[in-house]
Amino acid sequence: MSKPRLLSGMQPTGRALHLGNYEGALKNWVRLQDEYELFCCIVDWHALTTMAEETASIADDSRQIAIDYLSAGLDPDKCAIFIQSHVKEHAELHLLLSMVTPLGWLERVPTWKEKREQLHIVSPSYGLLGYPVLQAADILLYRPKGVPVGKDQSAHLELTREICRRFNHLYGEVFPEPETILTEVPILPGIDGRKMSKSYDNAIYLIDSEETVNERVRQMFTDPEKIKLKDPGHPERCPVFALHQIYNAEAAPIVERECRGGDRGCVACKRELAEAINRALEPIRQRRAEYEAHPEKVEAILEQGAAKARKVAQETMDLARAAIGLR
Ligand code: TRP
Ligand code: SF4
Fold first, then answer.
1. Three-class HEC string of 214-233
2. What is the maximum span of the chain, computed from C-alpha positions, in angstroms?
3. Could you tell me the CATH number of the domain that includes residue 316?
4. Does residue 189 line the site of ligand 2, with CB under 6 A?
5. pLDDT score at 25
6. Each residue of 282-299: pLDDT tens digit?
7. Cβ(9) to ligand 1 under 6 A?
8. Of the given ranges (77-81, 95-99, 226-230), which has the lowest mean pLDDT?
9. pTM of the predicted model, to two decimals?
10. Of 82, 103, 178, 285, which residue is the least packed, with the fewest Cβ within 10 Å?
């Protein structure tokens, strides 16, 4: 029996991933790779929709994401890790789907308005409007059972299903409707206690060294009412404690009790947390070092991934062309 297929994608824009990204999407993919046949697409064409004028770094950015995936523990023998632009069928299916997608559907997608406003795009491109059609092509090309994504992608997935139904209605059942598999993304606090986010400059990154992690944790905000070592604290208000619950889970009840009882100082508490985070990052760092020292291994993995993706993609395109009557 073959495993059910899943497809997901990530844009090569954000560059470095932080602990929040890792605990959300990536760790989930690593968990899913045993039960499913996972296709992990690095969507470089999507990145072009908002960076058409500064494309010089796009190939390197895509490799960086691949290294993030691999060092987080995605196994290239279990899943296909590939770059969208290496599998040209994405473009062909995008074109065919664009013929069955009414403009009105695209203009209603919330990200169409949001992106133009956030990025101050005065004259949006045809490609930006078509972003969700390209995403539908990414997905339908693999006829997957589901798509593991965060909540922010719900509208795109709903549109994918609408395009899917429209195509099947016009030409026959080519594409199974993919499910949205919502990834529970735990909200991790950053060093200032706000949600960990690249834009707040409060994140700890997967690429951070041991020293950087120690330093960032040392800078973390704590319970403002706990000033002296013997002051009783409120762990529920302390971002250090929130991270203990994730990275030092077994000891978290002790941390909590000692903090409340005034038996624990914040300096030592942070030192313990930094050690726990470093322990969790150690295997990731080792794998990263290995891939960074051998970029040819990354290239080979991306080629192998694209070959595996292409095989399924070509089967799908044969079905889609035949359904339409192209030959
Ligand atoms: N739009 C997605 C994002 O911004 C990226 C993406 C492109 C994607 N194609 C996809 C996600 C296919 C899942 C499946 O994160
Ligand atoms: Fe936070 Fe630890 Fe200090 Fe308590 S002892 S306030 S949990 S850093």
1. HHHHHCCCCCCCCCCCCCCC
2. 79
3. 3.40.50.620
4. no
5. 80
6. 999 999 999 999 999 999
7. yes
8. 226-230
9. 0.89
10. 103
